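thought: fold this chain, then report.
action: predict
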Amino acid sequence: MRFIRFVLSIPVCLFFVYAKAQQQTGYIPLTRQQHSKIEALLKEMTLDEKAHQLASFYPNANRRLNIPHMQAGECLHGVVAAGATSFPQAIALASAWDMDLVERVSTVIAAEARALGIQHVYTPMLGVVRDARWGRFEEAYAEDPFLVSRTGVAFINGLQGRGKERYDSHHVIATAKHFVADGEPALGANGAAVEISLRSLHEIFLAPFRAAVEEAQVGSIMPAHHSLNGVPCHINTYVLNDILRNEYNFDGLVVSDNNDIRWVQDRLKATGSRVETIKKALEAGVHTELAFKQTWGANRMYGPPLAEAVKNGQISPALLDEAVRKVLGFKFALQLENEENPMGREMAQLKTETKNADVAADVFFSQIDGSLSYPRKNYKSILNNPAHDLLALEAARKSLILLKNEAQLLPIRKNQFKTIAVIGPNADTVRLGTYSTQQPKHFVTVRQGIEKAAGSSAMIHYAKGTNIQHPDDRQIAEAVRIASQSDICILVLGDDDKTVMENVDRDDIALPGDQDKLMKAVAATGKPVVLVLLHGRPPGIQWAKEHVPAILDGWFAGQDTGTAIAEAIFGELNPSGKLTVTYPRNVGQVPAFYNSLAPGRPREIWGSSFEPSYPFGFGLSYTNFVYTDARLSSNTMTTRDTVYAEVTVKNTGKMKGDEIVQLYIRDEVSSLTRPLKELKGFQRITLEAGASQLVRIPLSSKSLEFWKDGKWITEPGEFTVMLGPNSTALSTVKLNLTN
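observation:
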């Protein structure tokens, strides 16, 4: 009887082993039947049909074999499609330091993407950003690898879903990009060659991708534009194979960035022919090629040139099959065959664009938003869900950062000032940031938010003050006139959609155009000024820090920018965001980041200070928080232990508020020079006036490890553990690590 039970249990045991293996890899949760179907399709497909499967963004269905189209799209902080919810820009969302919020936001983005017919998204951007000149700064989360990792994992979990919800009909494939080290380009130039040590590569720039793979099982990776230590990222077998696949055990999809396979040869001059380029990209494991419909034609590498090279024996059929196998796996995992229109529509339009009509997928192409998709019938109800708008407003509220509040100018009471001047080029226009829809469902400007919040209690006067792109002194004069006639000025400055974006870098970080001139002119009126910043890169605002009494920073805060800003100005909202990057005094301090290695000499700068305008982790509140009794649950730990850093935080003010408690460490004795401090934990808390809370943040030996001689190690010895509200105001305790 026992033998019979044992035999009967074998299939069950094998099933659980198989299921466990799927759960561990987490990339493509397929059944055995789906695996068999993939292999059968590979046997039936022609070379042209196989190559066509490797088109990302461009139509990739196969009507003859009933293979559905998988649509990719941009979803950095909302789907780039008309009527989608516009959340705060990536750098703004990260400023909330709220991982639950991040995951809820990306969950909504995924639901809206699927409703719009998008199943594969090119986000999140996991660059560790250190150079404010770089045009893509706003797409990133932070200058710190730990904070980027935490934010990235949360965003990916929301996009892809957890557990049984993973890749269901409301979730998508996330793409961690750009792999790797694009956040500190030479001269701040997009796509510039990157030359860094292996230690910096692993500890700083690879760390968020390691977390994305090992913790969130991100489904897709996109290589970066540039060359890394001389090798283009799109053919870099060291980072794509040795590290990503062999060390991190990544088993997902790798998609090229736009035209970057071709540019390995044409721009970077790292290959001598199309065949060599395609072969090296496939050998590095780049499965699909991103190319927009307008540029697909003769520019594509993974189309007819690939099929021809395989046919001629120049490229192994196994390389092509492996890439196709990966694509089909994700199409089946997403159950795209169950979509309302898995093949799309308007076949007649695409027949003229491909030689083989059976291969073509017919899909809807939006000239407005640059995306190919076929929306579900109920997509409008998904996009217009009121809960999505409430979440966008919550995210905007939590992302606002109070940088200065001299003499408690803020918040203002509604009857405190009879006339309020709202001035600035960003005061009454749409400012969403890059990779945003051109047709948002709504956008509340700062002027509109102030007018609604003030109601009949104050008269609102508006002046643009200056045009960022085409300054005019007459506009500044008009702004000064209005400011002089008002009791207080709300000055709204920052970037527009031309001063910060992909491929638009700067050689200065001052507010663009004549905005500094406008600010100084308005301040010279003697009226109290509240500076509101809506921008996409760290601005040089040292003069404002020294002369403007109040500064409220919103980055690009999403569709409800004006509502959140007005609530903060009038005290309905207590700002609680913290900087995730350092704000340099000027461009001479770039690149700027808090976690630098210990220097060999004390630093001095002639005529200036080496301190930034505002440090990493900084942010004020309308209330006061006092930190006391910093300690550890144990001052000694082994590599197998977890200790808790503890501190009591009390709200000593008169207003409820949120505080973000931050934990840093410093290795006091190491075989390699270590950073002066490194963020290793944080916790967002809410305290009523007069209330206090004991905050406990875990610290394991993984937090103490570093990369040396090709591996991660921990060394016994003394560490300093620091707790506080930012990276400079810290209480310290000692920790001893033993073997």
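thought: worth noting. Confidence is low (pLDDT under 50) at residues 1-26, 345-371.
final: tokens above.
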